[in-house]
Amino acid sequence: MDVWIIDHYSVPIEYYPLARQRNFAKYLIKKGHNVTIFAASSVHNSSINLIDENLLHKEMFDGDIRYVLIKCHSYTGNGIKRIFNMLEFAYKLKTVCGEYKKPDIIISTSMTQFACAQGILMARKYGCKVIAQITDLWPETIVAWGLASRYNPIILALRYLEKWTYKSADKVIFSMEGAYNYIKEQGWESDIPEDKVHYINNGVDLEDFCENAEKYRIQDDDLKSLNKFKVIYTGSIRKDNNLDLLLDIAKCIKNPDVIFLVFGDGDELAHLKQRVKDEEILNVIFKGRVGKKYIPYIVKCADLNYAHNNQLGIFKYGISLNKIFDYFAAGKPIISDFYSGYNPIVEENAGINVESGELHAVADAIERIAVLPESEYNLYCANAMKAAQKYSFKNLTDRLEKIMFDLVQ
Hints:
Structural class: alpha/beta
Number of domains: 2
Radius of gyration: 22 Å
Order of helices and strands: EHEEEHEHEHHEHEHHEHEHEHEHEHEHHH
Strand order of the largest sheet: 3-4-2-1-5-6-7-8
CATH superfamily of the largest domain: Glycogen Phosphorylase B
Largest sheet: 8 strands, mixed
Strand content: 15-25%
Helix content: 40-55%
CATH topology of the largest domain: Rossmann fold
Number of strands: 14
Number of helices: 16
CATH class of the largest domain: Alpha Beta
Distance between the termini: 11 Å
């Protein structure tokens, strides 16, 4: 069937590493479907714009995957320019899509809510089926971060749009396992029955992961060290990642063989490096930013992979951090340090979660894992690999395709 995937931020992964839509497209195409991804030309968290010319849109290809990029103004930060960018993409989407043969099904993705809603409206116009794919609970995420009151008029307007989206779509797929609990808490279950709602978390493309682990290696003595127990963090280094806590945890570690290797970049890096210097934190080494293709090799070199985050109430509905699924594929134990109502690491017995996030408790857990008997350590490794198979995009796409066929047949 002909499938459109609408996702504001899903440019080719060489520019921005959000691979969910790309991986679904890859495996749907292998199953014989025709897939087009519609995205904005502006690359999130960068100054890159993939359309310099005076064009409304242009096509790009990643192998067999066709991207239709819609020209949108670039922005930095989360101010008015980003809001304009969101509205601009949703507004132009209708015109651009009108130049293409109508699909059999539209998978319309939030974030952003505006683009997701526009996809639903277009499906009504074309008389095709539509799936709302929800990978972030907006506007609840804004409230959870304390950026606005839940009674703020803008939040109330976005909440109305959110309910309309769930109600109007033919099916809704959440990346959060407990999302229907959220719907019930909002009092929407009479308008949005449970059999309309499905759960497909993020995952890992094992084909790409294994190929990149072999092909893209870095020469790093710390990574290759056999004399140290290597705890690896990969990801952004920004204020909301709260890596000050990671430094505090490292200071509590008494085992001299435990080291933390941090791969990533962000506006907090200089501050954290200064802390390491001033406080003589000798067991933390910042390695800087690396390309996404090097991550498989890096996390496979770990003795323990670290899924760190803040304590956010919204996590009670589940988590879909991309790094967790890379960590599964690495086949090494994982530690997480925040509360989640549905934590795949715990569910798959692939590591340990310290729900409190209290620094001494996390440090103690790391030191316990560092001296586990080989049989217990290897059990975590084996469970991580099983989880990687479960959350492989090949298997996740099978689930997506079943939902699609149930709609169109």
